[in-house]
Amino acid sequence: MLTSKERAELRSKANTLDTVLMVGKGGVTENVIAQAETLLDARELVKGRVLETALMSAREVSDAICEATGADGIQCVGSKFVIYRFSKKLEAQRQAERAKEKAKAKAAKKVNPVRAGVQARRKKAREEREKRNAYFKEAAIAAAKERKK
């Protein structure tokens, strides 16, 4: 079952879809259900239309197709309806695309040359400071030993 926010998002995506599923005067037949199954596997979101010659309303057709295919009814307006069913095949494709994008982003990591130069100068200055401090520390220890003698 979908939440209202998910349904609203799917309705907004369905606005740009073309009508691909037509139901005529024969009503919801095995052929219509098979076509709906195929479309749901390929697209997840399907927009359909009930022709004027059909004896059923868009809501009745949508409910019948949803019951037969296990889909969710998203919207019914006039003679058009929208149905949705999650597709594992499309999810696998999306995950593969995300993995490719991550790999591409990781490979094309941007390097800021100004920042790299600043970091290199700071590292060099820190190393020189540590050398100087080590030298003076050794000199102070040696002087202390000389005074003890």
Supply the key terms:
149 residues; alpha+beta; four-stranded mixed sheet
Descriptive report:
- This protein is α+β, with helices and mostly antiparallel strands.
- The chain is 62% helix and 13% strand.
- It has a four-stranded mixed β-sheet with strand order 1-2-4-3, sandwiched between helices.
Helix-strand category = alpha+beta
Total number of beta strands: 4
Instruction: Please trace the helix and strand order, writing H or E for each element.
Output: HEHEHEEHH
Radius of gyration over C-alpha positions, nearest whole angstrom: 34 Å
**DSSP helix count?**
5
Q: Strand-residue fraction?
A: 5-15%
Query: What is the makeup of the main sheet?
Result: 4 strands, mixed
How many angstroms does the end-to-end distance come to?
89 Å
Tell me, rounded to a whole number, the average pLDDT.
92
Helical proportion?
Answer: 55-70%
| Overall morphology | rod-shaped
Summarize the structure.
The protein has helices at 4-14, 30-43, 58-69, 88-107, 113-148; strands spanning 21-23, 45-50, 72-77, 80-84. The chain is α+β, with helices and mostly antiparallel strands and 149 residues long.
Topology record:
Elements lengths: L3 H11 L6 E3 L6 H14 L1 E6 L7 H12 L2 E6 L2 E5 L3 H20 L5 H36 L1
Parallel strand pairs: 1-2
Antiparallel strand pairs: 2-4, 3-4
